[in-house]
Amino acid sequence: MYGKAFAPEYQGALTTLSVNSSLTDVLAAGTEQLRAAERVGARAEAARSGLAVAEAHRRLGQVADADRAWKASYRTAREARDTGAMAWALWSGGTLARQRGAFPLAWRLLRLAAELGKQSGDVVVRGYSLAGMAETGRIQGDYAAVTALHEQLLAEARKRGEARHTVWALEGIAQIHRNTGAYDTAYAMFEEAAEIAARAEDRRGHAWALRGLADIVSVRDRDPDRALALLSEAEVSCRAMNLSGALAYNHKMRGNVLYRAGRYERARDLYVQALAEFEAMSEPRGRALSRLGLVKSLARLGRDRAETAAELTELASVLEGIGLRHAREMVERARTELGLTPAEGADTEAAR
């Protein structure tokens, strides 16, 4: 059995905050508690309040503020000799680095966070840090390296009855299955994740699970209307909690669904919207993937073949530069889908 989901990143005086608290409320409460702790010289409390501030900024897409906040939390925790708080701050920094597309930095920070979590005896931050490493590898497309870690973390989360972590692990493994074409297995895992999240009142996890289900319904079942309905349900939670990143990925997925259904003009509009949202939060992976969808939509709407080929060539470099190992494959699939040959892209690049 799973209990109600909780947010271990909300610590100290902020443990009363819910996993579903609006991020603007978390930011306000965290900032107030941080200032109060600083006034009385309570460094350990300041470090842990600063963690909530950093996470709120990150999830709101306020990258520069999040970067300053996690570093300040780490420095304060180090001054207080609070190894556990240092681990949590590094976890936040590593998660932010992954969000920004700085994958080598994400690996380093999350590995250090896991090590400090082990030293401090904080099994939760160690688990979150290992999970962050697994997610980083999955996003990069290195499935062979991280599938076993995902499965290990799922087993540990199930054993402890941790709903939120179980949901995360299920969604990660489901995404790997989806990306390798095992749609039925992926659907079943996303469905289980959605059910556990709903029972545990984890609105964030539920929204991501619904997004995964919508993707499968669109690809496997060719049912765009049901997929869009699932995304609309997820969007309600994203907006209620001010989940900027999750909302942007929801909009990009809506573009994917519409594109697959042949509704190219509407898909174009959604990709433009998602692109702007990702640009606002300096999220390079989401930005590049939205551009890829936009290029394909514009091509379907009659854009010049040479311009399409040129942008696909550029995008291949951008995606590879971010560190997505399957970037070339994604772009080549787009070329094939649009009836372009590799030579067209090469010729266009040479002419620049």
UniProtKB/TrEMBL annotation:
UniProt cross-references to InterPro entries, sorted A to Z: TPR-like_helical_dom_sf (IPR011990)
Organism: Streptomyces olivochromogenes
UniProt superkingdom: Bacteria
Name of this chain's protein: Tetratricopeptide repeat protein
Pfam family, one: TPR_12
